Amino acid sequence: MNRTLKKTLCTGLSCAALLWTLPGLAADTKAIATDEMEAYLDFVDYGGATISPEQIPRASWPTMHVIDARDAGQYAKEHIPGAVNLEWRKVLAQRSTIPKDKPVLIYCNTGSLSAQAGFALRVAGFENVRILQGGFTEWKAKGGLEASAPAEHHLPR
Asked: Is residue 107 within 8 Å of residue 84, measured between CB atoms?
């Protein structure tokens, strides 16, 4: 048997063996992921790492890594000052760009997509991630960077 034919057969057999084992690998991977999520949910604090705009003091904003998880068009139109744009579906693929040594705040328009991204990051070991409850919409409605100011400050005079 010539060398090229042997190489082709070996490659074909390797691919066949890999394809044969893929369903088992996929099941194992899903089981591992499910176990990790279950363990996270067993110990996560009530609220699942959400934080409301009023809980963030004005002085804390510059110390945080803020992620706008919306699409680039929405980010370009308007975003929280200092935020970086990282679409919610890409947070795990680009997790190496997210610091683990400082607070991270992630938001979308209403908090639902950023909650999914934040959950994925926290399961992946990013315990420093908080999800902005109510998202950008609520952040703006409650006064933006000044949302933590006393309620009297926002009352008409």
From this structure: no
Task: Report H helices in the chain.
Answer: 3-43, 72-77, 112-123, 135-141, 151-154
This prediction has a pTM of: 0.71
Picking from 82, 71, 74, the residue whose alpha carbon sits closest to that of residue 144 is: 82
Taking each helix axis as running N to C, give the angle between helix 112-123 and helix 3-43, from 0 to 180 degrees, rounded to the nearest 10: 110
Cα angle, residue 106 at apex, residues 105 and 109 outer, rounded to 5°: 135
Q: For residues 67 and 105, is the Cβ–Cβ distance under 8 A?
A: yes
Q: Which residue has the tokens 């609520």?
A: 138
Phi, psi of 104 (to 5 degrees): -120, 130
Does pLDDT of 84 surpass 90? yes
Q: For residues 40 and 36, what is the distance between their CA atoms, to the nearest angstrom?
A: 6
Q: Which of 49, 64, 86, 108 is catalytic?
A: 108
Residue 108 known to be catalytic:
yes
